[in-house]
Amino acid sequence: MKPALSVVPPLPSHLLLGHVVLADREIARGYVEVRGSQVASVGALADGTTPAADQVIDFGDAYLMPGAIDAQTHARSQKDNEDFIWASRAGGHAV
User: Which carries the bigger pLDDT value, residue 90 or residue 53?
Assistant: First the structure.
């Protein structure tokens, strides 16, 4: 008997439009491509190379900071603080 083939569905993709702020530059009218829960690419809309996506969300002039840490979280205990540190080292992020 042959083993059954498993098909992994493609991850959903989202294209977020807005003012993109990166560590080394800003893109006044740019995009952040998100596949699943990870940033796949960042670019300028003016380049004309906008990736295809399942959903496009236009945030207008809002600032998009891919990879930024949610600085408004609060550790209520030493365990919470350790969990936050572990999550950030493991590549945890918010989109």
Answer: 53
At 7 the pLDDT is 76
- Is 8 inside any structural domain? no
Section 16-45 average pLDDT: 92
Check which CATH number belongs to the domain holding 42 and give it.
2.30.40.10
- Domain assignment present for 6: no
User: Phi, psi at residue 45, to the nearest 5°?
Assistant: -65, -30
Angle at the Cα of 60 from the Cα atoms of 32 and 65, rounded to 5 degrees = 40
User: Looking at the 3D structure of the chain, how many domains does it have?
Assistant: 1
pTM: 0.64
- For 32-70, give one letter per residue: b (16+ CB within 10 A) or e: bbbbeeeebebbebeeeebeebeeeeeeeeeebebeeee
